[in-house]
Amino acid sequence: MTLDGTGTGRVPIYEGGVGLPVVPAGPYTAGVGPHRLALRRLRHNYTALFFGSLFLLVVVLCLLAPVYARYIAHTGPNDQHITEVLNINGRSEDVVSVTGVPIGPTWHSRFFLGADADGRDLAVRLLYGGRTSLAIGAMATAVTIVLATILGLVAGYYRGWADSLISRALDIVWAYPVYLLAIALGVSLATGGISIGPIQLTSGSIFVPTLVIGIVYVPYVARPVRGEVLALRERDFVEAARALGTSNLRIMVSEILPNLTSTIVVFVALQLAHSIILEAALSFLGAGVQPPAASWGTLLSAGAPLFTVAPYLTLAPAALLVVACLGVNIFGDGLREALDPRATVRAGR
Amino acid sequence: MGRFLLRRLASAAVVLFTVSVLTFLIFEVVPNGNPALRLAGRTATPANIAAVEKAYGFNKPVYVQYLKTMEEVFTGRIVSYAQNLNVVSQLRQDLPVTASLVLGAAVVWLVLGIVLGLTAGLHAGGPIDKTITVLNFLGISAPSFVIGYVLIYLLSFKLHVFPSSGYVGLSDPLGWADHLVMPWFSLAILYTGIYAQVLRASVVDTLSEDHVRTARAKGLSRRRVLVHHVLRTSLIPIVSLSGLDIAAVLGGSAIIIEVVFNLPGIGNYASQAIGALDVPPVLVITLFGAFAVVIFSTIADILYAALDPRIRATGAR
């Protein structure tokens, strides 16, 4: 199937159907696939690129957490320094004062952003917490996308009773307010842990919030995927594949799935932001990551009671969280725009 | 229409029933370990535990426990484990706080979302549009409780404009609004961003439609075209979204905002129950939250079908 001249059979999708990109004729557009075109559009969207790199910067910083802890801050994320006295610009200051107020930002290598109530270095915990938050966000997104794609494909392709069954199941998950379902599952799993066959999750494991977050968002992705599969399965190239005797599984995987990539890519970015925010909310309410493990959510929740005396304990993780989510959200929107074939293409650039 | 109504109501009933079973299972069966162990206290003898099991019916089959729990929920007799207080009467006491919070926030996000979305849509592509879009994304990317803390920091501790926490009843309208302004905005900013984006897209689409061009061509004023031809069409998705979102907020971010601003509402109650691993209140609140979503979405579907005959015929959403 070479509908677009690339020989891949991939056809871009826009709302309500499938079609070829509207590309003004130009010397460089001939024989260029839709994904190449999308990339070209994205390359000229400087806002999206800027915010995308902002997100990448946060990721890199968090990945470098051990380096920072070892060579700059000289302390680990769970090392307490309650009784230590620091020498800052000639003045000596307690890490945690006798009244229990932790030191504020020193802007020095040690306790750059200050300490928490247990005398732990906030900057170190912030970066380690970011690793947890980003890891949970990424894994939860993977869970959502994989489950939703499979369910959406099967429901949309087979229709009939498979569709009814899957759609009703999605309706039920969808009926719960996301936070309440996540909290309910988080609380019940966080207290008892879970064992599914050979997989054992203890109550403190970060896989509990990951699984919870991954599952509650499935209907939000599976429904649009199903809708697109319903439209795609009526297309000529699917009929052609069927006429050639291609098996159902193969049609789904090699004919329909490639046409879903645009949608899925956009959802990956959106879900990443959603999952990171939900992790923070869950941990904030005590139903997510369990202390002493750090995540942006647990840092926010630990900082909240000290908000009046040490607001930076809350504001620092809040700022990093917002920057990460803003970055991935705006980049995702840029991706969506780039993959939307109705967007105007500046050909020849 | 009659057949559609019947089918939609039947499917809502099935979902409601399944939701109630699932909620019950999540709380009563999934957590490993016997709830009687937690209730009986730390130094319980096996006889104590057996007595608690008997008193709460934990030794009965699961379906009996389910029926008993549901009977208690719907007759309003369910009591919490922690203090043996009636859950439903506690909820009734907390409801005005949560309702004030959520409905006020809905007004804020509808007004702001419509103003911002319309402005951005009319200036599509220009600097005003870009600024509003970035602001919208900022709102979508910041969790409501983070916005809450930033507002408390700036407006309560730095500028002393609004009180940082607490609730005052409606008998003192000024105090009521004074205490709720920051919670309203914290809750509304996310939805303002979403609604402004939805409305912007919808306005851009509508502006290029034939009926708008016709209206302009026959000499109607710009203002009249905007209000009667553009806004009216563009508002449909917003209005249908808001019903669902109010239900979602009731069982969602309202919980966190009530904790942040220390408002004595249903969310705060839920949060305390979660902290104490007190199952009945969390069960009831989750159940009612899910019921609210199902009922609101059923009403929305029926209204939609009443407006658009095509939906009735196919049963599509």
Characterization of this structure:
The complex is a heterodimer of chains A (349) and B (317). Chain A is built from 12 helices and 6 strands. Chain A has 349 residues and is mostly helical. Chain A has one domain (32-72, 133-349): MetI-like (MetI-like fold, Orthogonal Bundle), CATH 1.10.3720. Chain B is globular and about 85 Å long. In chain B, 78% of the residues lie in helices and 0% in strands. Chain B folds into 2 domains: 2-75, no CATH class; 94-315, Orthogonal Bundle (MetI-like fold). The two termini of chain B are 15 Å apart. Chain B is mainly α. At the A-B interface, helix 5, helix 6, helix 10 and helix 12 of A face helix 1, helix 6, helix 7, helix 10 and helix 11 of B.
Helix and strand arrangement:
The complex is a heterodimer of chains A (349) and B (317).
Chain A: E1 13-14, E2 17-18, H1 34-43, H2 46-63, H3 65-73, E3 85-88, E4 91-94, H4 122-158, H5 160-175, H6 178-192, E5 194-196, E6 199-201, H7 207-216, H8 218-232, H9 236-243, H10 248-284, H11 296-303, H12 312-339
Antiparallel strand pairs in A: 1-2, 3-4, 5-6
Chain B: H1 2-28, H2 35-39, H3 46-56, H4 62-74, H5 87-122, H6 127-141, H7 144-158, H8 173-207, H9 210-217, H10 222-250, H11 253-260, H12 266-275, H13 279-307, H14 309-314
Helix pairs in contact in B: 1-13, 5-6, 5-8, 5-10, 6-8, 7-8, 7-11, 8-10, 9-10, 10-13, 11-12, 12-13
Main beta sheet strand tally, sense and closure of chain A: 2 strands, antiparallel
Q: Cα-atom Rg of chain B, whole angstroms?
A: 24 Å
Number of domain modules of chain B: 2
Strand content of chain B: under 5%
Q: How many beta-strand segments of chain B?
A: 0
Helical amount of chain B: over 70%
Low-confidence stretches of chain B: none
CATH class of chain A: Mainly Alpha
SSE pattern of chain A, N- to C-terminal: EEHHHEEHHHEEHHHHHH
> CATH class of the largest domain in chain B, please?
Mainly Alpha
